Amino acid sequence: MDRAVTAPGAVIPELVEIGRARTVVQTLAELWRDRELLYFLVWKDIKVKYKQTALGVAWVVLQPVIGMLLFTLLFGKVAKLPNDGLPYPVFYYASLLSWTYFSSALLMASNSVISNTSLVTKVYFPRILLPAASVIGALLDLAIASTILLGLLLFYDVPLTPGLALLPLFLGILVLFTLGVGQLLAALNVNYRDIKHALPFVVQIWMFASPVVWPLSMVPEPYQWLASLNPIAGIIEATRAVISGSPVPWDWVSISAAMALLLFALGLWYFQRTARRFADVI
């Protein structure tokens, strides 16, 4: 349990509140109240991530670009998988943007509590800020890497359609989903350190189970609903659709949004339920 030194008889509301579970509304209000601390944690995560790196933010672009080149060669030129009418580099880079953000933010969020042991055990603050900072901080990497996608669209003469205005909506669903899973894994990681070692392998398998290198159209129609239960699937498919000018698969987007909301609520509930014991367990 968090401790603090205070005068006899003084009451510290924060320490009283830490013993009770919070509702979603209370949690959101607390996040808004401590938004300056959230900004500090986001900035700290960004600095730590690139500290003493030779290439710095170039790593943000290198990862999806190298993945795009490999997938274009192996799955595009050799295997000749369907590409929904898009040039293979655009097809793969569009999906890798969403996937790279999700995977990197999820890994950071899952380790956010145990990597800030000194803060958790010595100072009271809303613990939910830790995974939230990791997920929000990764948006900077996504923004930088997105400039390459714009360059690819111009290079391959892919028209910039009005549907591109929907991308912030899909991004919002992706962020909500990532934060939900990140909260859940961050809380589990405190009690079960196996999560830290198993998660990179699970994420790798998850990528090939998602339509990153293949479109959902390859799945037989009776089973497409099952594939769309993976929230990342609808987001990737919708992103490719607006880039190519095709109709947006709103049924898949709706399923992704519903799953994202469900996982966010589950992750928030479990995180807040276990956060009271973090300082004792960690």
How much strand content do the residues show?
under 5%
The shape, in one word, is globular
Gyration radius (Cα, Å) is 21 Å
The assembly state of the depicted protein chains is single chain
Q: State the end-to-end distance.
A: 11 Å
The helix/strand series, from N terminus to C terminus, equals HHHHHHHHHHHHH
Helix and strand composition category: mainly alpha
Total DSSP helices? 13
- Mean model confidence by pLDDT: 85
| Helix content bin | 55-70%
* Main sheet: strands, sense, barrel: none
Q: Tell me the number of strands.
A: 0
What are the low-pLDDT stretches, counting only 5+ consecutive residues below 50?
A: 1-21
Task: Describe the protein's topology.
Layout: H1 13-17, H2 24-33, H3 35-50, H4 58-78, H5 88-110, H6 117-122, H7 129-155, H8 167-191, H9 194-208, H10 224-227, H11 231-244, H12 250-275, H13 278-281
Key words describing this protein structure:
282 residues; disordered N terminus; mainly alpha
Molecular structure report:
With 282 residues, this protein is mostly helical. It has 13 helices and no strands. α4 crosses α5, α5 runs parallel beside α8 and α11 packs across α12. The longest helix has 27 residues. It is globular. The N terminus is likely disordered.
